[in-house]
Amino acid sequence: MKYINRFKVAPGSKVKLKEIDPGFKDQHDNHKQASEEIDEDRKKLRKLQELFYADGRYSLLICLQGMDTAGKDGTIDHILGAMNPQGCSVVGFKQPTLQELSHDFLWRIHPHAPARGKVAIFNRSHYEDVLVVRVHDLVPKAVWSLRYDRINDFEKGLVEENTRILKFYLHLSKKEQLSRFKERLDLPAKQWKISEADYKEREFWSDYIAAYENVLSRCSTHDAPWFIIPSDHKWFRNLAIARIVVEHLEELDLKFPKPSVDLEHIRREYHASKKN
Q1: Which residue from 112, 82, 88, 116 is spatially nearest to 100, judged by alpha carbons?
Q2: Counting Cβ atoms within 10 Å, is residue 122 exposed (0-12), middle (13-18) or buried (19+)?
C-alpha cells in the first residue's frame, strides 16, 4: 500500500492516537536497512520539485505539527535538503505578536501561502489556534471551537486556487520525548534548544493529545488531508514524509512547459555564433 494511503486520516473518521503506534517502522529494522530507500526518495524529490517549479500550475503547502522534539526541524532539513531552495520557503509560527493579535487569527497566515510553482513549509501553523490556545485557555471555548470550520474554509479557498496541501502530525510517544530531552542535556550542540517550558508542557500531555485528536478528526479533508506519521524513529519519520510528498507529486502529472521560442531559429543563431 502506498504511504499516502496508509497514513492518511480518512475524512470524517474519529482519531484515537493511543491506537496508533508511534514506534511503527514498517518492514525495516533500522536506519541502515532503510537507507537506500531514503536516498532514492530524496533523489526523486529533487527531480519532482524541479518539475513542479517548471510546470507552474500548482503550489504546495506542507504543514508540520507535533509535540516538542517530535522532529519538525529535522523533517524540514530532510525535505528541504533534497529540494532547490530557490523554489521553497519555511515559515515558523511562534507566539503571535501584539499586531497579529489585533487581527483575526488567520491574518498572519495567509501572506505566507505559497505562490504557484513554489513549496512552503509551515513549522507549526494556523492549527496552533486550536491547540495551544485551547490547552492553555487563551481564548474562550466559544471562540476556538468555531475555528475548525474557518480553517477548513481557509484551506478550501487555497485549494480552489491550485494549492495542494499536505499536513503531517508527527506522532511521538511521551517516553521518546523524555529520551530526546535527555539528549539535549547531554549534547552541547543541542543544549541551546533547552527551555523551561519543555517540562511544564509535559504536564499538559493528555490535553494536547485530546486537542490533536479533535484537529485530526475535524480538519482532515479530501483536498487537505492530515497524515499521522509514527515519529519515535527519526529515520522512519523522514522516510514516510518524503515518500508521501513524492507520491503526491507523482499523481499530479507534471510536465515541463513547451518552449516559448522558435527552437529552430535559436539553433540557427547558435550555429552562427559558433562560426564567429
Answers
A1: 112
A2: buried
Residues of the chain with pLDDT under 70: 270, 276
Please write the tens of the pLDDT for every residue from 111-152: 999 999 999 999 999 999 999 999 999 999 999 999 999 999
User: If we measure between CA atoms, which residue out of 157, 175, 155 comes closest to residue 231?
Assistant: 175
- The pLDDT tens digits for 164-194 are 999 999 999 999 999 999 988 888 878 888 7
Instruction: Judge if pTM exceeds 0.85.
Output: yes
Structural domain range at position 165? 3-275
The b-or-e profile of 42-65 (16+ CB within 10 A means b, else e) is: bebbeebbbebbebeebbbbbbbb
Output the DSSP codes for 144-166: HTTHHHHHHHHHHHHHHTTEEEE
Number of domains in the chain: 1
CATH number at residue 202: 3.40.50.300
